[in-house]
C-alpha cells in the first residue's frame, strides 16, 4: 500500500509495467551513457480517486535542458492551441491590460498567439531548447520550473494574472501542493487556473496503456481534480472534454467561492460515478493491457517469420512503455521514423531501436508500420497516403491490436 501524494489516502496498485526508462531520454549510439530505469507501477487512491504512479522520477531527469518534445510539430496541435488562444482572448483576457501566465509553454505554440495579440504574457519552462524557440518567436519566457516561489516572484515583478494556463504539464508534477500555492499567490481576484491533460476515462475505456509513462505521474479525472482543487483552496468550476491525444479534459479552477461551477462539472461527475469509482475497473484495464501486449508481440513475431518488413512510426514518449513492457527491440522493429531533428540518429530509451528521419520510411516503404503516434493517426495517414498506395498497412495496438 502507498500513500496518496494528494490526500494521504491508500493507493491500491492495479498494474505494474516493470522496469522502464525515462521516456524522452533518447540514447547517443556512440555509447558512454548510463540509462536510468525505475519501476513503473500505477495505482488508484480509494480516498480521493486520483490515479497515480507509485514511484516518482525526478523532474530534472524528465525535463532536462535538451528535452526534445516540440508542441508545434503537429498540425492538429497547432490548430488546437490557436483555437484555445482565440477563446481566451475573447473571454478571460478581454479586459483592460490582462496578464497571462503559461506553465510549461514549450516552444510557444500557444504563447505566441497571445503575444501577437499584444497581451502581456510570461511563459515558464525548464527546457532551454524549447524556450529559445519560443523567444525567437517573440515570447517572454522564464527558464525553470513553476512552483510556489515562482508564483510569488512573478506576482511581485509583473502583478497579478487573470489567467494561468497549462497544457499537458500539471499531471507531470508530483508536488501539486506547490503548484496550487503558486497559482494562489499569482492569480488576480476572480482569476482562473486552467489546465488540460489526458483524461483517465478515455485511457481506461480505450486501453490507452501507453499513456502511462514517467511524465504522466497522475492520470486526471473530474472527480479526482475536484477533490485535489478543494484540498488546496480552489473549486473546480468548469470542465470541457477535448478530442486531442485520444481524449483530454480541460479543467477550470478558481479560488473557493469566487465562481459558480457550471452544470458540466456535475454532469461529468455523474458519468464517472458509473464507471471510474471502483478499483475493479482499473484491474480490468490491466488485464486488457496484458492481452494487447501479447497480441502485439505475437503479430510482430509472425510477420518477421513470414519475411515481412516492419518499422515504427513516431518515436513518441509513450512508445517507451510499449517497447519496454512488451520486450520489443530492433529484432522486431529495426527502426522508427520520426520528424523531430533532436531525436534522429539516436536510439529509443531502453529498447534501443534506431530513430531515423522521415525519408527512411519511403526508402523503400515497409510492408507494415507500427503507429506509435496513434493519437495523430488521421493527420499521419493523410500525409503518408503513398504508403497505403504502395500496399503498406498500419499496425495499431489500441484499443486492441489491429491492422488498418
Description of the molecule:
There is one protein chain. With 404 residues, this protein is of the alpha/beta class. It has helices at residues 59-62, 75-90, 111-116, 128-136, 148-158, 176-186, 200-206, 222-231, 263-273, 279-305, 319-326, 377-383, 385-389; strands spanning 2-3, 10-21, 37-45, 51-53, 99-103, 120-125, 141-143, 161-167, 187-198, 218-219, 234-242, 248-255, 310-313, 336-337, 355-356, 368-371, 393-396, 402-403. Among the domains are: 145-275, 3-Layer(aba) Sandwich (Rossmann fold), CATH 3.40.50; 281-403, Rossmann fold. The protein is built from 13 helices and 18 strands. A seven-stranded mixed beta sheet has the order 7-6-5-8-9-12-11, sandwiched between helices. A six-stranded mixed beta sheet has the order 15-14-13-16-17-18. Helix 3 (111-116) links the parallel strand 5 (99-103) and strand 6 (120-125). Helix 5 packs parallel to helix 6 (176-186). The model has no long low-confidence stretch (mean pLDDT 96).
Amino acid at each position: 500500500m502507498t500513500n496518496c501524494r494528494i490526500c494521504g489516502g491508500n493507493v491500491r496498485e492495479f498494474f505494474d509495467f516493470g522496469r522502464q526508462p525515462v521516456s524522452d531520454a533518447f540514447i547517443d549510439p556512440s555509447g558512454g551513457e548510463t540509462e536510468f530505469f525505475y519501476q513503473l507501477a500505477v495505482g488508484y487512491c480509494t480516498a480521493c480517486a486520483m490515479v497515480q504512479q507509485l514511484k516518482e522520477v525526478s523532474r530534472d531527469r524528465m525535463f532536462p535542458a535538451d528535452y526534445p518534445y516540440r508542441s508545434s510539430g503537429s498540425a492538429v496541435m497547432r490548430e488546437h492551441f490557436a483555437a484555445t488562444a482565440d477563446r481566451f482572448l475573447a473571454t478571460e483576457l478581454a479586459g483592460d491590460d490582462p496578464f497571462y501566465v503559461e506553465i510549461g509553454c514549450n516552444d510557444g505554440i500557444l504563447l505566441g498567439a497571445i503575444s501577437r495579440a499584444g497581451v502581456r504574457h510570461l511563459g515558464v519552462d525548464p527546457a532551454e531548447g524549447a524556450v529559445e524557440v519560443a523567444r525567437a518567436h517573440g515570447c517572454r519566457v522564464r527558464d525553470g520550473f513553476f512552483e510556489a516561489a515562482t508564483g510569488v516572484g512573478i506576482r511581485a515583478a509583473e502583478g497579478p494574472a487573470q489567467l494561468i494556463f497549462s497544457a499537458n504539464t500539471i499531471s507531470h508534477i508530483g508536488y501539486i501542493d506547490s503548484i496550487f500555492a503558486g497559482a494562489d499567490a499569482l492569480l488576480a481576484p476572480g482569476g482562473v487556473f486552467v489546465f488540460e491533460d489526458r483524461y483517465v476515462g478515455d485511457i481506461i475505456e480505450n486501453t490507452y496503456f501507453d499513456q502511462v509513462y514517467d511524465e504522466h505521474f497522475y492520470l486526471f479525472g473530474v472527480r479526482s481534480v475536484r477533490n485535489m482543487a478543494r484540498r488546496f483552496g480552489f473549486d473546480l468550476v468548469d470542465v470541457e472534454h477535448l478530442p486531442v491525444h485520444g481524449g483530454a479534459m480541460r479543467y477550470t479552477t478558481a479560488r473557493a467561492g469566487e465562481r459558480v461551477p457550471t452544470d458540466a462539472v456535475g454532469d461529468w461527475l455523474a458519468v464517472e460515478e458509473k464507471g471510474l469509482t471502483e478499483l475493479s475497473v482499473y484491474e480490468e484495464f490491466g488485464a486488457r493491457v496484458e492481452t494487447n501486449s501479447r497480441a502485439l508481440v505475437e503479430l510482430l513475431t509472425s510477420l518477421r517469420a513470414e519475411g515481412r518488413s516492419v518499422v515504427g512510426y513516431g518515436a513518441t514518449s509513450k512508445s517507451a512503455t510499449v517497447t519496454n513492457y512488451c520486450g520489443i527491440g530492433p529484432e522486431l522493429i529495426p527502426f522508427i521514423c520520426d520528424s523531430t531533428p533532436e531525436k534522429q540518429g539516436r536510439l529509443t530509451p531502453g529498447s534501443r531501436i534506431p530513430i531515423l528521419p522521415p525519408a527512411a520510411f519511403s526508402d523503400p516503404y515497409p510492408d507494415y508500420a507500427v503507429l506509435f503516434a496513434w493519437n495523430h493517426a488521421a493527420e499521419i495517414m493523410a500525409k503518408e497516403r503513398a504508403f497505403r498506395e504502395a500496399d503498406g498497412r498500419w499496425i495499431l495496438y489500441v484499443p486492441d491490436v489491429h491492422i488498418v
